[in-house]
Write a structure and sequence with these properties.
The structure is a single chain. The protein is built from 12 helices and 10 strands. The chain is of the alpha+beta class. The protein has 2 domains: about 160 residues, no CATH class; about 100 residues, no CATH class. Strands 1-2-7-4 form a 4-stranded antiparallel sheet, sandwiched between helices. A two-stranded parallel ribbon has the order 3-10. Its EC number is 1.17.99.6.
Length: about 300
């Protein structure tokens, strides 16, 4: 085993010890295959009001522009699947990824500890960590590194554990052994496409973000368009429909990370309490939650839209 093989094995073993579900590695290079796809997606205005997606086009496609001298992109996945569906058959629903604490902070902290331990063992190296932040095409790198394939709902899916996991990256200057993309196992299934109430899945692996319920309840800062009326299926923050119907998610197992376990206050909220929520209650309940991204006014707008 040569030095790059040893180092690669060390990193993958370390990732497993720190609770990551999968770890795959790709060469840090220009994503040639993704360039025309991203350009066409933006040209079709599938990003809606997410104007930030138009920024840093080159950096989104080339990690060497984000981390000078980078040689490897380490892609990682972290399970967040809950023990129970808190909002099944409820009149207000929150996406499963938001049951617990904000994944940006939780996973970044885990990565910092993991890298600190790595550097104690192998010495200093140049790196940056990313958790759904900065212009990084996470799913493209996860696919390239063999973590999973891109499903028809554009999520990364694995045969072993479905798709309820977060993605993260370490872009670094280490010379490592590179993995290869896995095969696609969606076959002729179109459950996600047929289940989407707003027809946001335009075609296989192509999403019109401006039609997505997650976009409407989180990213959109203006009033929710009338085109979403009677199609929200009670989602007030995010949406799990295309994942809930995916056959591969029958293999999802509950997360072991306590910080992703459901916020206790969420489990007991009644319809009336949601309706009568105040800024003070919102700040208290969602202080560490991804839901705080909508701010109180945004969540109130979503709730009002559902009840109209």
């Amino acid at each position: 085993m040569n030095s790059s093989e040893k180092l690669t094995k060390l990193i993958k073993d370390k990732a497993k010890n720190f609770g990551f579900q999968s770890c795959g590695i790709s060469k840090s290079e220009f994503l040639e295959e993704e360039a025309p796809k991203l350009e066409a997606w933006l040209k079709n205005n599938f990003h809606g009001e997410m104007k930030y997606m138009e920024n840093y086009f080159d950096k989104r496609l080339d990690p060497r522009l984000l981390v000078e001298g980078s040689r490897s992109v380490i892609s990682l996945s972290y399970n967040y699947f809950p023990k129970q569906d808190l909002f099944k058959d409820k009149l207000q629903k929150i996406s499963k990824y938001a049951y617990g604490e904000d994944y940006h902070e939780v996973i970044k902290e885990i990565l910092r500890e993991m890298i600190s331990e790595l550097q104690d063992e192998i010495g200093e190296f140049g790196f940056r960590v990313f958790v759904d932040s900065a212009p990084v095409l996470e799913r493209a790198w996860a696919k390239k590194s063999g973590i999973g394939w891109v499903g028809k709902n554009a999520n990364i899916i694995t045969k072993q554990s479905g798709s309820f996991f977060f993605l993260a990256e370490i872009i670094c200057d280490l010379d490592l052994e590179y993995d290869h993309a896995t095969t696609d196992h969606c076959g002729t299934c179109r459950k996600c496409i047929d289940a989407c109430p707003t027809d946001a899945i335009v075609s296989d692996k192509l999403i019109d973000g401006s039609k997505c319920i997650s976009y409407a309840t989180i990213e959109l800062k203006e009033e929710i368009p009338d085109s979403f009326k009677n199609k929200m299926e009670n989602w007030m923050f995010g949406c799990d429909i295309c994942q809930d119907v995916c056959p591969w998610n029958r293999f999802s197992a509950p997360t072991l990370e306590e910080k992703f376990h459901p916020n206790e206050a969420l489990q007991n909220f009644t319809k009336t309490e949601w309706k009568e929520m105040t800024q003070e209650i919102f700040s208290s309940v969602f202080r560490k939650s991804p839901v705080k991204r909508t701010k109180f006014a945004g969540l109130k707008r979503n709730l009002d839209f559902l009840s109209d």
